[in-house]
Automatic annotation (TrEMBL):
Its EC number is 3.5.3.6. It catalyses: L-arginine + H2O = L-citrulline + NH4(+). It is found in: Cytoplasm. One of its GO terms (biological process) is L-arginine deiminase pathway. It comes from Winogradskya consettensis. Pathway: Amino-acid degradation; L-arginine degradation via ADI pathway; carbamoyl phosphate from L-arginine: step 1/2. Gene3D superfamilies: Arginine deiminase, L-arginine/glycine Amidinotransferase, Chain A. One of its GO terms (molecular function) is arginine deiminase activity. This is Arginine deiminase. The keyword GTP-binding does not apply. The active site is at C382 (amidino-cysteine intermediate).
C-alpha cells in the first residue's frame, strides 16, 4: 500500500434531496439524510485528505468537464433516453429538455435525475400518455443518491481502471457516468478499461488490493462468482496480479461488500470484523498456462492472504470488541477505513471502540463525523475511489 496521491470523491448534492420515506429503501438508504449537514461532513472529509497532501477530484466537476465534449454529451444523453419506460413521446420531450441544458446543468440532471414536476407540459408540449399516467412522485430520470460511494462504480488496479457492473437497479446508471469520464475526460486520456458495465456484476467495494500483485475479491450480494472469474481473467491477461483471493461473504445488507468487514490499514495488517474473522475463507485463484483462472482449495482467508503476499502473517487488528459492540460498529462502517498511507487511516468518529483499538495497535486514526453520510451505509473507504498511490 502506497501513499494516497489522488482520489475521486463525490460531494453529495441535489440527488440526496430526492430521498423520501417512500423511496429510501429502494434507493438503498436507511434514513433520510439532512443534505446540508451531509455536505459539511463531506467537505471536512475532503479537507482532511487535502491536509495530508492528497489531491481530491470531484466526480461532479469531472462530469461537467466531460460533457463539454460533444461525443460524451451524445453518449450520456443517449444512455438516459434508452430507458424503455419512457416511450417515444416522452423520450422526445426529455431529449428536447436535455438538449437545452449547458454542461453544468446537464451534469446535475444526470446525477440528481428529473422529477415529474420538472418536466411540466406547456404550450406546444403536450403531456403524452406516459407522462399523464406516471405517478407524480415518480421520476422521469431516476436520481443517483449512491454516487457518493465512488468506490463502487469504478476501481483502479495500478494504471488501469475497472468500470464496474453494479448489481442494484438503483445504482446501475452510475457507471454510465464513470465510464464517460474515463473515456472522454482529458485527464484520463489513454487509460485502459479493465472491466465494463454490462458484464457480470462486480462492485468496487468488493475489490481489495492486498499487495502490489495480490487482490482479494468478495463474492456476495453484489459481486457474483462469474464477475470475479471474468475480472480475474482480465487482471491476469493485463499482468496486474499473480494471485486473486476470492472470498465468499454473507449475502446480506450488513456485509454487502468485502470492505464492510475488512480493510487494509498497513502493508501487513487489516482491520476486520471480529465476528467473522475466523470464519472468512478464500479460494486462491492463479493464472493457468492458457491464462484461464485456476482455482485452488479454499483456506482460511488470513493464511491464504499471507502466503500470496509473501509475508509470515497478515496481522489482524484485534478489535477485541464484545459481539454486540462489534456488530453495532460494523453496521456503522467501523471496519470501512480509508488508508491514506501505511498506518494512517480515515474512520468515522462514532466507532469509538474500533478506533481506540486501531490507535492502540499503532494506527493513526483521522476521525471524521458521518452521522448523515453514514445513513447510506458507507464509510470513508466506500466514499473514495483512489486513482493513484505512490509507492512507499
Ligand atoms: N463499498 C461500499 N461498502 N459501499 C457502500 C455502498 C452503500 C450503498 N447505499 C449501497 O447500498 O450500495
Amino acid at each position: 500500500m502506497g501513499r494516497l496521491a489522488t482520489v475521486m470523491l463525490h460531494r453529495p448534492g441535489a440527488e440526496l434531496a430526492r430521498l423520501t420515506p417512500r423511496n429510501n429503501d429502494s434507493l438503498l438508504f436507511d434514513a433520510i439524510p439532512w443534505v446540508g449537514r451531509a455536505q459539511e461532513e463531506h467537505d471536512a472529509f475532503a479537507q482532511a485528505l487535502r491536509d495530508r497532501g492528497v489531491e481530491v477530484l470531484y466526480l461532479g466537476e469531472l462530469l461537467k468537464e466531460t460533457l463539454e465534449k460533444p461525443a460524451a454529451r451524445a453518449a450520456l444523453t443517449e444512455s438516459v433516453l434508452e430507458d424503455p419506460r419512457l416511450g417515444d413521446n416522452l423520450r422526445g420531450r426529455v431529449s428536447a429538455h436535455l438538449a437545452d441544458l449547458d454542461p453544468r446543468d446537464l451534469a446535475q440532471v444526470l446525477m440528481a435525475g428529473l422529477a415529474h414536476e420538472e418536466l411540466k407540459p406547456g404550450p406546444g408540449k403536450p403531456g403524452g400518455l406516459v407522462y399523464e399516467l406516471m405517478d407524480r412522485h415518480d421520476f422521469v430520470i431516476d436520481p443517483l443518491p449512491n454516487l457518493l460511494f465512488t468506490r463502487d462504480s469504478s476501481a483502479w488496479v495500478r494504471n488501469q481502471v475497472a468500470v464496474t457492473s453494479l448489481a442494484m437497479p438503483a445504482r446501475n446508471r452510475e457507471t454510465t457516468l464513470t465510464k464517460a469520464i474515463y473515456k472522454h475526460h482529458p485527464r484520463f486520456a489513454g487509460t485502459e478499461l479493465l472491466y465494463n458495465p454490462g458484464l457480470e456484476n462486480v462492485e468496487g467495494g468488493d475489490i481489495l488490493l492486498l499487495a502490489p500483485n495480490v487482490l482479494a475479491i468478495g463474492v456476495g450480494e453484489r459481486t457474483t462468482a462469474a464477475g470475479a472469474e471474468r475480472l480475474a481473467r482480465r487482471v491476469f491477461a493485463a499482468g496486474l496480479a499473480h494471485t486473486i483471493l476470492v472470498v465468499p461473504i454473507a449475502q446480506e445488507r450488513a456485509t454487502m461488500h468485502l470492505d464492510t468487514v475488512c480493510t487494509m490499514v498497513d502493508v501487513d495488517a487489516v482491520v476486520m470484523y471480529p465476528n467473522i474473522a475466523d470464519a472468512l475463507r478464500a479460494y486462491p485463484v492463479t493464472a493457468g498456462f492458457d491464462g484461464e483462472p485456476q482455482v485452488g482449495a479454499a483456506r482460511p482467508f488470513l493464511d491464504a492472504a499471507a502466503e500470496a503476499m509473501g509475508i509470515d502473517r497478515l496481522r489482524i487488528i484485534d478489535t477485541g470488541l464484545d459481539p454486540v459492540t462489534a456488530e453495532r460498529e460494523q453496521w456503522d462502517d467501523g471496519n470501512n477505513t480509508l488508508a491514506i498511507a501505511p498506518r494512517v487511516c480515515v474512520a468515522y468518529e462514532r466507532n469509538v471502540e474500533t478506533n481506540a483499538q486501531l490507535e492502540r495497535a499503532g494506527i493513526e486514526v483521522i476521525a471524521i463525523s458521518g452521522s448523515e453520510l453514514g445513513s447510506g451505509r458507507g464509510g470513508p473507504r466506500c466514499m473514495s475511489c483512489p486513482i493513484e498511490r505512490t509507492p512507499g
